[in-house]
Specification:
This protein has 400 residues and is of the alpha/beta class. It has three domains: 2-60, OB fold (Dihydrolipoamide Acetyltransferase, E2P); 85-114 and 238-399, Rossmann fold (3-Layer(aba) Sandwich); 121-219, Beta Barrel (OB fold (Dihydrolipoamide Acetyltransferase, E2P)). Helix content is 25%, strand content 32%. The structure holds S-adenosylmethionine (SAM).
Length: 400
Amino acid sequence: MKVVIDRLDHYGRGICNIDGKICFVKNALPKEEVEIEIIKEKKKYLEGKVVQYIKSSKNRIKEICPYSHVCGGCNLGHISFLEENEFKTKKVKDLVEKFSNVNSSLVRNISFLEDGFYRNKVVFHVSDKKLGFYEENSNDLVEIDQCCLVVGEINALIPDLEKLVKVNDIEEITVRVGNVSKEVMVSLKGEVTDYSTIIDKVDVVVINDRIVTSKKSILSQIGEYKFLVSPDAFFQVNRNVTEKLYDEVLKNVRKDHSSCVLDLYCGTGTIGIYISKYVKYVVGIEVNKMAVEDAKRNKELNHIHNIDFMAGKVEELIPSIKSRFDTIIVDPPRSGLDKVTLENIIKINPGTLIYVSCDPVTLARDLNILKEFYAVKYIQPFNMFPRTYHVECVCVLNRK
Ligand SMILES: C[S@@+](CC[C@H](N)C(=O)[O-])C[C@H]1O[C@@H](n2cnc3c(N)ncnc32)[C@H](O)[C@@H]1O
């Protein structure tokens, strides 16, 4: 049937109405007239697949990735970058208004840089000795020889990884690249007996969580600071946007010789170290033991003396914090803040709370609780993950 697409949902799918029922159509843009086939019929919604484009949108571009329709990694690959950025700003505005009733005028226009070849980390899957990505929502492999989201060093390694999977029984390969050092870390899962094809091209090799090289971590850099990153530790995937994001955080930290900062979910210590020279003291909390070890080494590496790290879950350690903190920075995983952490942040009562979020849905949910005690100053979205529907935000809150 022929339909006209009305708007996009938060995953970038086109939405239209068919006999009063909502229908989601992938790879379809607002105002486009398309012929669709219904591929799923549920009680509350339908899913359609485009069979033919009758009238295309001016915002449609030709995807640079030949696998984009099957792989699903770059789900916004068919939208102009300008439109993608507008979509993401609107997504954050809609979500905060819907789930927290925070005025959407407090959401600023998204900050963005380059639109491709930015990821310094990728996970490849292997099936029948072929390397690629899984099709969206399935375990069917899409064989690839290039990915438009990853940095050049990862694409350059693909031919060697293809040779590696031919001579071993590998299930999964994670590749990470140090963003300035260009050091490469390859983590393999499966039965690996021969990794001679990559040993001269990479710096760290990990086999089933065991590091088999003398080098144990790779070196990355954000601004003037260097960070050692171990295999299991989190590190932001987009270097240039991360630097902008950390600058946004820094702008809002009270900078004087009495200012104390709590950096929750601190990973390898990045944000705390980045702001440390402007404040009296920083305490970081992180659950991943390897990341905490990295954070301690990063403190030494950057000659920082006013920061300490605690290993453990934020929700278990924060109730025992009795000291005064002027600023709390939180950068939780997608699940956002739990009840105990929210209650204790409110109890510690910092003048400023800086919430770094990789999921605006959980950010909005948490703002709905925080707004009784804190006023949202502004929310700055960042296009940390171009070509995908994901969006990162920095939300600045001031005590009421
Ligand atoms: C989005 S990352 C942020 C890391 C760091 N702020 C950065 O910019 O690199 C979230 C971090 O929270 C950690 N984490 C997840 N759940 C946690 C918890 N319950 N308590 C403490 N840390 C946790 C993860 O290991 C990860 O390092």
